[in-house]
Amino acid sequence: MLRPRLPITLLLLAATASAAPPAGGDAAAEPPANSVGRRAAAGATAVAPGLVVHGAGHFVRGETQTGWRLLAAEGVGLGSAVGGVAGLAVTGASPRTMPVFAWMMIHGVGLFGVSYLADIYGSVAGPDGSGRPLLRAPWLALELGHRFVYDPIFDYGHLAIVGAEWRHAFFALEAQGLLAGDDDNQRVRVAPRFRLLGPRPDRPAADGGFVDLRSALVWHRYGTERFSTTLLEVAGRGRLDLQHVGRTLRGAFAEAELGIATGASKHEGFDAEPEELLLGGFAFGLYLGHARDGWGEVALGYDHRHDGYVAGLKAVGLGSGVAGHFTLDARLGLFGPWGVGLEGAIGSAWLGGVSLLYRAGGER
Amino acid sequence: MRIVVCVAALLWGAGCVEVAEERAKNEDRIGRRAAHGLAVRVDEGLAAVRALEADRVELWAQAPTLTVRLDAAEAGEWTLDLRNAMPDAVLEGAPARAVGRRVPTHRSWRVTLPAGETTLRIAPPDAEDPSPWTFVAFADVQDRLDGVQDLFGRMATEPGVRFGLISGDLTEQGDASTLRRFQRNMETLPFPLFATLGNHELGADTDAPPFHRLFGRGSFSFAYRGVRFTLLDSASATIAPRTYDKLGGWLAAGRGGLHLVMMHIPPLDAFGLRNGAFASRGEAHKLLGLLARAGVDVTVYGHVHTFKAYTNVGIDAYITGGGGAIPERLDGIGRHFMTFRAEPAAGRVVPGVVRISPAD
Questions:
Q1: Are A315 and B19 within 8 A, CB to CB?
Q2: Nearest CB to B9: which of A89, A90, A318?
Q3: What's the CATH number for A136-363?
């Protein structure tokens, strides 16, 4: 499914970076401590005590300024999440205020999660990081693949996915179709996008970060169940290269998204009824590889949407129905423009799949 | 603390896509038990067997009409205590003598059983009467249990009410002692309350919550005076696949007549951005499509702490979450319950709202 991303998390994270220059950090003139033992100790610290004190791994590695920034990000994230929950509780999730508090909660949790994962990554990463971003975006990207879905409520299990994305200057148009091979079920998404900041096909950017305004028209037909939904989405989406937070985070990025979707559902033989969705999410990712003509990245994310093949988490008890789903998305160039994509997601269903990818243009 | 519980519950459930299936399996055991030379089986599991002693059986009813099958190893006399019963329920099928009880919804009989199986039918005299009648509905008392008599006191004055329905979240944590407190509070009412469970009832054991033992099944269906009632366990923001199998039969039984379906978490929230609703919009629409095509007339939900009237796939839908839990602010509603006047001959159910206290 589509990876989620959003500006608020990024703004908060960027704020904690205090406008640090790329590759900046503690004693920028000196390389970070790179001994295997030091990095292993830092990594172990980041995993365990670091769950409570984000940045703990960086303190062990000697990257104290980055450690403080991650700790600050954790605090801002926690504060935002707690504030969101408190706001929802006090207002009884009133429709008049609920979206703001929900976004605070989502991106607070996102900032908390990103700062934790960033601490682990930065504690063990080498001086060049995991990889480099594309500074010039490809003008064409194609995808053809298969998705397996296990959802105990629906009969479909195998989906074909076909996608294309065309970019021209600041504009991009993305189209994607998912077609069940063993059920009467189809989902089509057409999404125009405007890049306000970041890599474009016609000119290189300073790093991989971006800010997009996007829209999408999503049509999902459940033929067996005799209904369809049509949604128009409007969202902001952004990415921040985490090298701006600390030099040990070179190669890592955070993404976030915020928006809404509105439209209608239509059951055969019944009038259409309004449908709406809160959009929001975050991701932590890594660029993969350093080769100038290569490309690749992997991201672990959360998507708040409750529709589609994965929908929301089926949590038990008090959290029932609230959360969206988690995603893992990897894309890696193998031979020139050709590459492979892997996707996994957990929500109301399990989804996994592999795609053949083609990209024209784009360079690091 | 509530936040910690929420997060823990969320993480615990993350990744499992059949969170309600085990609970649905366990439900099938409700309504049957054997001990002391007597096997008890309640058709459709419409009552929980709360006690089976040497000469006494105690049931908690989840429907106004019950068929109880008793298989005795030897002939003898047994006391049948029926809690949450229709106050005028009559027992047929075996020689029986009514025993007086203090609580109107506690019916008790000394029943003489022969060896072998005996089928008892317990029902009020008006069970098949098609004339108009009234029932009430509410949800989400949660941590306002101490103040629930405000609600019950007003309900008790409502004229002609035959029973009430609760669409979940009777208590805050669903533990046995609090559920028993809820049941003791119910004793002030002159009519029974039939309940499904909410997400707050799942407590620590989400597969076999105390609700099962003390109230009974979360998913069940019964008919009374020209109306079919189907209550579904949506406490995990989904319906168990096993329950969908049963739902097909209940929808078929309700086709052509008045049919009300109740569950705690609505398939779709009236305010979609909030999604106080099923985890999956796809499943929500699948379920509502099944209900709509089967001619269901009314759906009643809880979970969202307000009152809202809307339609889902053309079916009249009501959220009635005003039992006392933290209310939705700025909605002008406050604590309330709903009344429904069923008019089977006219093919309609007329809703009403009774406010207990003004909005905060």
A1: yes
A2: A318
A3: 2.40.160.40
ipTM higher than 0.85?
yes
**Interchain CB distance below 8 Å, B281 and A271:** no
| Average confidence score pLDDT of chain B | 94
Please name the residue of chain A whose CA is at the shortest distance from the CA of residue B2: A318
Q: Specify the pTM.
A: 0.93
Cα–Cα distance, B15 to B12 (Å, whole number): 8
Q: Is residue B5 a part of any domain in this protein?
A: no
**Does the pLDDT value for residue A67 go beyond 70?**
yes
| Claim to verify: residue B286 and residue B152 sit in the same structural domain | yes
* Facing A265 at nearest CB: one of B235, B283, B285: B285
Count other C-beta atoms under 10 Å from residue B28's C-beta: 12
Here the CATH number for the domain that contains residue B115 is 2.60.40
Taking the C-alpha atoms of residue B292 and residue A32, their distance in angstroms, rounded to an integer, is 64
Name the phi and psi angles at A316, rounded to 5: -90, 160
Size of interface A-B (CB pairs under 8 A): 209
- Per-residue pLDDT reduced to its tens digit, B314-324: 999 999 999 99
Say which of A225, A315, A318 has its CB closest to residue B14.
Answer: A315
Q: What is the count of structural domains for chain B? A: 2
Q: Given a cut of 80, is residue A33 above it in pLDDT?
A: no
Please tell me whether residues B138 and B78 are part of one structural domain: no
For residue B236, being part of any structural domain is answered with yes
User: What's the gap in Å between the CA of B306 and the closest CA on chain A?
Assistant: 9
Rounded to whole angstroms, how far apart are CA atoms A309 and A182?
14
* Nearest C-alpha in B relative to A221: B282
Torsion, Cα A244 A248 A252 A253, to 10 degrees, reads: -20
Nearest by CB to residue A315, choosing from B13, B282, B313, is: B13
Q: What is the pLDDT of residues A126-157, one digit of tens each?
A: 989 999 999 999 999 999 999 999 999 999 99
pLDDT digits (tens, 9 = 90+) for B11-54: 544 558 999 999 999 999 999 999 999 999 999 999 999 999 99
B72 in any annotated domain: yes
Chain A residue numbers with beta carbons less than 8 Å from the beta carbon of B238 are 153, 314, 348
pLDDT band at A4 (very low <50, low <70, confident <90, very high): very low
Last residue of a domain, which of B103, B123, B143? B123
Amino acid at B50: R
Q: Which residues of A323-332 are buried (b: 16+ CB within 10 A; e: fewer)?
A: bbbbbbbbbb
The answer to whether B64 and B192 are in contact (CB under 8 A) is yes
Strand segments, DSSP code E, in chain A are: 136-150, 158-168, 171-180, 185-197, 210-222, 227-241, 252-267, 273-287, 296-303, 325-335, 338-346, 350-363
Tell me which chain B residues have a C-beta less than 8 angstroms from the C-beta of A271.
Answer: 314
Domain ranges of chain A: 7-124, 136-363
Q: Which residue has the tokens 């009514």?
A: B98
A159 confidence band (pLDDT: 50, 70, 90): very high
pLDDT computed for residue A18 by the predictor: 42
In a domain, B7, yes or no: no
Structure confidence by residue, pLDDT tens digits, A190-218: 999 999 999 999 999 999 999 999 999 99
Is residue B117 located within the same domain as residue B151? no
CB contact under 8 A, A278 and B274: yes
Name the residue type at position A197.
L
Q: Which domain holds residue B200?
A: 128-355
We report the CATH number of the domain holding residue B162 as 3.60.21.10
Residue A363 CA to residue A204 CA, distance in Å, equals 8
Quick one: which of B317, B328, B63, B35 has its CA closest to B196?
A: B63
The answer to whether A264 and A307 have CB atoms below 8 angstroms apart is no
Which one of B123, B148, B177 terminates a domain?
B123
| Low-confidence stretches of chain B (pLDDT beneath 70) | 1-15, 358-360
